[in-house]
Design a protein that fits this description.
alpha+beta, 3-stranded antiparallel β-sheet, Arc Repressor Mutant, subunit A, 3 domains, 479 residues
């Protein structure tokens, strides 16, 4: 039998606040265990939480950027469950009246554009962190608890089960990450747990509209793991059904070293959490005027920015998509163009040599030794014919090591392009005389032979001859 997958994601994103959601403890990552804690986030008797206003602001901005309706009235609830990393034995979250509902994002898949609906976005506090002695909870002899993360503000972005392939799930999570970074509400550092997802997946016979039994994989924190975990779990469920078995509703964990999912515990339903309104926090009332003010404060978002780069500069959909994949790269591109650079050349240099060097050194574009203004100035030198594209690569490498302007580097290194026809003609004549075989092949109909002659001219001119002039002179002289 042929099956299809039904996939939904619950993305948890830590918000970029200095202090926790209900107390003044720091949210910074990497502190010594159990040092960023206080009676409030430890849930000691007699304490009262107070909502961090910045958390509400960031949640509303995320909702607006993800095309959600912002609710004027929302409230917090207690989600009751017992686990070592939850000191109060409940998590303060939102249940029936979340801050945001009914949103969507559009993703570009290998089969075209697809809309993924968002059910809700709600605010909640993070739990602590279990520090296992082994690689996973399944192979650990001991686990300790670090409560530093307890009370760190989260938004949970719950999708509809609109995805049917692991690729779509990855693309959806990448798009959400990009949007959250654009609006600067989360660092989205997946290696630090800033952004992670619970994956819900079931399978059903192709063409059926009846949902199968789903399993959930918790706290997946890389795009690669999202795809690999879903691929394995879909295959596992298919094998269970083909063998005549039944998929069990359960929570599973992903073991990246073995490339398998492992059973952890039976999966709870919402009623198992015994939700109740949080009595220590007042309801949240947000006016339409406040919501509109937050909307106006949002930057240009990825989809709108991509459309602008395509229409204004004629960039391809692919190039514009790469450039706008992060806000830092998009702003860098705009600054390069503002320095006078041709937009298409700017895109090529940013996606090419610049990205190559950034990746080699493991740094982001915001830390690039070559700032946008200097790259723009260098591209202008190419457009003016002062340097060739080949020489520009040498100039760029010098700019990577030196703070000097591209004009100074070109002057100091003697890299100005030769555009004197007589000077180039002398080199062309010598190359023709020294390469009779290539000349004979060209005259015999092998037009590609001119490429080796061009290469020889460029070599003898140390890359400084104008390539267009070289081609024209060779074609003219060879008839």
């Amino acid at each position: 039998m042929s099956y299809e997958a039904v996939i939904g994601l619950e993305i948890h994103s830590e918000l970029k606040t200095n202090t926790k959601i209900f107390c003044g403890c720091a949210t910074s990552f990497g502190a010594e265990h159990n040092t960023h804690v206080c009676p409030v986030c430890l849930g000691l008797p007699g304490v009262l939480p107070v909502l961090n206003k910045r958390v509400l602001e960031f949640a509303i901005k995320a909702g607006l950027a993800l095309n959600c309706k912002i609710n004027n009235f929302s409230k917090f609830d207690r989600k009751n469950y017992y686990y070592p990393d939850l000191p109060k034995n409940w998590q303060t979250s939102q249940y029936d009246l979340p801050i945001c509902e009914h949103g969507y994002v559009d993703i570009e898949t290998s089969k075209g554009k697809k809309r993924i609906r968002i059910t809700r976005i709600h605010m909640e506090e993070d739990a602590g962190k279990l520090v296992h002695s082994g690689n996973t909870i399944k192979d650990s002899e001991t686990s300790n608890v670090d409560y530093n993360r307890t009370g760190v503000p989260l938004i949970e972005i719950v999708s509809e089960p609109d995805m049917s392939t692991p690729e779509e799930a990855r693309l959806y999570m990448e798009k959400v990450k990009s949007i959250l970074q654009y609006i600067d509400v989360s660092n989205c550092k997946m290696e630090e747990g800033n952004l992670r997802a619970d994956l819900n997946v079931s399978i059903r016979p192709k063409g059926s509209d009846v949902l199968g039994t789903r399993t959930e994989m918790k706290n997946i924190n890389s795009f690669k793991a999202v795809e690999e975990a879903l691929e394995y779990e879909i295959e596992r469920q298919e094998e269970v059904l083909e063998d005549g078995g039944h998929v069990i509703q359960e929570t599973r964990t992903w073991d990246p070293d073995r490339g398998v999912t492992l059973s952890m515990r039976s999966k709870e339903n919402a009623h198992d959490y015994r939700y109740m309104p949080e009595p220590d926090l007042v309801p949240i009332i947000t006016s339409d005027e406040e919501i509109e003010a937050y909307r106006k404060s949002l930057p240009e978002l990825p989809d709108a920015r991509q459309a602008r780069l395509e229409s204004e500069y004629g960039l391809s959909s692919y190039d514009a998509g790469i450039i706008t994949s992060s806000r830092q790269m998009a702003e860098y591109f705009d600054d390069v163009v503002a320095a006078g650079a041709d937009a298409k050349l700017a895109a090529n240099w940013i996606m090419g040599d610049l990205s190559k060097n950034l990746n080699a050194e493991g740094i982001g574009i915001e830390a690039s030794p070559v700032d946008a203004k200097r790259l723009g100035e260098m591209i202008c030198l190419i457009s003016k014919g002062t340097i060739s594209s080949k020489i520009a690569k040498k100039v760029f490498e010098e700019m990577w090591k030196s703070p000097d302007s591209p004009e100074k580097i070109v002057k100091d290194k003697g890299l100005v392009q030769i555009t004197d026809t007589k000077a180039i003609e002398a080199i062309v004549d010598k190359v023709i005389a020294d390469n009779p075989k290539a000349v004979e092949e060209y005259k015999g109909g092998k037009k590609k032979a001119i490429g080796s002659l061009v290469g020889q001219v460029m070599k003898q001119s140390k890359g400084k001859a104008n390539p267009q002039m070289v081609n024209e002179l060779l074609t003219q002289k060879l008839g």
